[in-house]
Amino acid sequence: MSALTLTLKHRPDQRVDMSPLVPHLLEGLEPVQIAALELQTGKRKVRVDELFTISGSDIQTIVIKNSFSKLDFIGKELQGGSIKVEGDAGAYLGFGIKSGEIEVDGNSGLYTGCEMKKGFIKITGNAGDFLGGALPGNKMGMKGGTILVKGNVGERAGDHMRRGNILIEGNAGDYCGSRMTAGTIAVMGQTGRFLGYAMRRGTLLLWNQPQLSASFNDCGAHTLAFLPILFASFKKLNSKFADTSIAFNRVQRYAGDMSEIGRGEVLVKLG
Amino acid sequence: MIINGVTIDATFAEAFPMKATRAIITAQNEKWAMISAQAMTGFATSVIACGCEAGIERVLDPSETPDGRPGVSIMIFAMGGKGLAKQLETRAGQCVLTSPTSALFAGIDGGTRIALGKNLRYFGDGFQVSKLIDGKRYWRIPVMDGEFLTEATTGQVEAVGGGNFLVLAESQPQALAACEAAIEEMRKIPNVIMPFPGGVVRSGSKVGSKYKSLGASTNDAFCPTLKGATKTDLSPEIESVMEIVIDGLTKEDIDKAMRVGIQAVCDLGAANGIKRISAGNYGGKLGPFHFHLQEIMA
Q1: Are B173 and B136 within one domain?
Q2: Mind telling me how many Å the CA of B146 is from chain A's nearest CA?
Q3: The pLDDT value given to residue B285
Q4: How many CB atoms lie within 10 A of CB B282?
Q5: B93: containing domain
Q6: Which of B25, B133, B144 to mutate to test the interface with A (most CBs of A within 10 A)?
Q7: Do B143 and B240 share a domain, yes or no?
Q8: Which of B157, B178, B211 is the last residue of a domain?
Q9: Chain A contact for B125, CB < 8 A?
């Protein structure tokens, strides 16, 4: 059985809500029934086969070809299986994902992995603002799982993050780790201004010295025993994070945000 | 059955079900991992008065430990799950948390989960940090030498306690030398501990006592100084008897340990004063696990 492959025929003017195209909602549907499903785009609904050429039938493995930045809600509340996106993905990729894997070989838009529960999201390109964040007004962002971004990410990555890992090979924008409640964000590249703004708990693990706000206090240089275990857990990833030569356990520890409860930490690689 | 001049009695050791857990202690070097492990498994020779039976299973190479540092694997056995959990937590808190450079990890992945560092975290007074890595929860507790890292839980499994054999020798030094040789071999077997001091017990007990308040008392049938004063089980030439008690995760683990231990004793043989191997049992009434010596050595 080959993967259910949806090849975009043309780029619609309006954004498309792709949330019906997830394995658990396609279970038991024949290809003709999948073709007849309706997707919201702008203020109208269109049939799946109006936008996509459909081939293959394995609904546990979905491939979206010719994807572009207006295909929103890909893999919404995914409960298992995998989705591969060839091209870019729109906003809310992997929104509330409960398990399974999503891989994008281009860029992804705003709110990637928003309120994610578990599972794995890999972005080969860049990711937009509020990566792993919470919906506006909500207090809890990503609650588990791992997001790996090989490129750069926008502002407020990990906003209100509660648990899980966000691994960024490139740079992170301003307010990275803002309002974090817990979890780990690792950034190999540079970070922007207001790092960890109002974070309560959680770890920001950095390879480069950041520009820290005055509300982060230096706790000194330390060798931390949990870091080798954390790095060992990255070994299975197809990423720079899996490379043992990038691992370290000697860090400068900064506690903050002291304007909040100050139980968060910024750990910066030493040596 | 006679091996190298040593008579193997046609009897059996009687063991009973226990609950067991394993933990891995690591430290900056093997010396400090061992110090912590010895403290954690101290005063844990018998459930009769210690609340649990504990021992060091083996030394771990850095490549075998979760944090890549030298480590020691310890096991704790108790009669019930509740008692086991209490002993584990108390010992972890007083003997590992306190020990310089130590870290503490689960030694059993499956089984019923019981608290390892889950409640020790409160020592952190709010400064403790939780990390969930690959589905395992760890606690980082700030302490004066840096940070104490501990896994939140470890596994509790069904196990077997009380496997044993007795070494009957012509002299005390010969009995001890034989037991030392046995222990050296038995420590190479995984999943077992010999909880008594140095693995050897010289005060084997029988059930009951003339004193009402005591549930167990000296095993007079095997006391050489009572050969003429009680219904003895010893022949005239026996001057000393020592026992090795084994707790293991399964009956098969204890079988293996008993086999290599008895073999090591028999290798010394009659020429070194070893006359008999026997075992302690209670007529089959106490425990469902029977280790027949002659079957094990067949």
Answers
A1: no
A2: 7
A3: 76
A4: 13
A5: 19-157
A6: B133
A7: no
A8: B157
A9: no
Whether the CB-CB separation of A71 and A86 falls below 8 Å is answered with no
In sequence order, the β-bridge partners of residue B142 are B147
Q: Does B135 touch chain A (CB under 8 A)?
A: no
Does residue B134 sit at the A interface (CB-CB below 8 Å)?
A: yes
- With an 8 Å Cβ cutoff, are B146 and A223 in contact? yes
Per-residue model confidence as pLDDT tens digits over B74-89: 999 999 999 999 999 9
Q: Of B157, B174, B198, which one is at a domain's C-terminal end?
A: B157
Tokens read off for A15: 């954004």
Q: What is the largest CA-CA distance in chain A?
A: 63
Average of per-residue pLDDT values in chain B: 95
Q: What is the pLDDT of residue B207?
A: 84
What is the domain count for chain B?
2
Q: What is the pTM of this model?
A: 0.92
Contact partners, residue B276, CB within 8 Å, separation at least 6: B6, B7, B8, B9, B166, B168, B235, B238
| Assigned CATH topology for domain A67-269 | Pectate Lyase C-like (2.160.20)
Provide the residue type at B219 as one letter.
Answer: N
**Cross-strand bridge partners of residue A186:** A167, A205
- Spatial neighbors of B285 by CB under 8 A, at least 6 apart, are none
Burial of A29 (0-12, 13-18, 19+ CB in 10 A): middle
CATH number at residue B237: 3.30.70.520
Nearest CA in chain B to A222: B146
CB atoms within 10 A of CB B295: 12
One-letter amino acid of B35: I
Would you say A168 and A157 are in contact if contact means Cβ atoms under 8 Å apart?
yes
Residues B265 and B201 in one domain: yes
CB pairs under 8 A between A and B: 44
Same domain, B221 and B245: yes
* Domain identity same for B133 and B30: yes
